[in-house]
């Protein structure tokens, strides 16, 4: 009787091993060959820390697992990124979404389909000994640089100055 139980246990282990092997084999085949991957061209402003999710997904093989082969091109500007999309040189652009709204106002088609950065990154950098800025009015008498208009950063900085009546 014990002998029969051992045979059943060994048989069950062999069947589980076969099932596990087939599962692992199937999972490893999920990553398709380069020939079967859909090629996607992505234009972006440049290699910024802000777009780290894009770089991590690319280097980590996430796109390949989903059947995509991504080609990333640095354009050197938000406006150039959106121009690459409008001109058909890129399937997607990663840049300031302001340019989509501006293009739509001028009759160009464009749509924001995803968010990579869920906020506007601002840093205050100086070589002067000044107190921490907690209110826009504290910027009086100081010069501030930002991305040029019509960027989100410019618009928000402009609004901050306007609210502080500077």
Characterise this structure.
With 166 residues, this protein is mainly alpha-helical. It folds into two domains: 70 residues; 47 residues, no CATH class. It is 42% helix and 10% strand. Strands 2-1-3 form a three-stranded parallel beta sheet. The radius of gyration is 26 Å and the shape is elongated. The N and C termini lie far apart (92 Å).
Q: What count of helical segments does DSSP give?
A: 6
Termini Cα gap: 92 Å
Global shape: elongated
Detail the poorly predicted runs.
Answer: none
Task: Summarize, please.
It is built from six helices and three strands, in the order αβααβαβαα. By secondary structure, the protein is mainly alpha-helical.
Name the descriptors.
6 helices, single chain, 10% strand
What are the SSEs and their pairings?
Elements: H1 2-29, E1 38-44, H2 52-59, H3 62-65, E2 68-74, H4 78-86, E3 92-94, H5 98-105, H6 152-163
Parallel strand pairs: 1-2, 1-3
């Amino acid at each position: 009787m014990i002998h029969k139980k051992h045979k059943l246990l060994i048989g069950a282990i062999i069947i589980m091993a076969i099932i596990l092997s087939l599962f692992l084999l199937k999972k490893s085949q999920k990553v398709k060959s380069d020939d079967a991957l859909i090629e996607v061209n992505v234009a972006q402003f440049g290699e910024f820390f802000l777009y780290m999710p894009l770089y991590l997904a690319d280097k980590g093989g996430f796109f390949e697992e989903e059947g995509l082969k991504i080609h990333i091109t640095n354009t050197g500007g938000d406006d150039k990124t959106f121009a690459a999309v409008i001109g058909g040189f890129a399937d997607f652009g990663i840049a300031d979404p302001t340019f989509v709204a501006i293009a739509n106002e001028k009759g160009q088609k464009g749509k924001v389909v995803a968010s990579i950065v869920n906020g506007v990154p601002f840093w205050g950098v100086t070589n002067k000994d000044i107190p921490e800025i907690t209110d826009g009015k504290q910027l009086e008498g100081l010069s501030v640089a930002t991305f040029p208009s019509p960027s989100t950063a410019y618009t928000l900085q402009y609004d901050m100055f306007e609210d502080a009546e500077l």
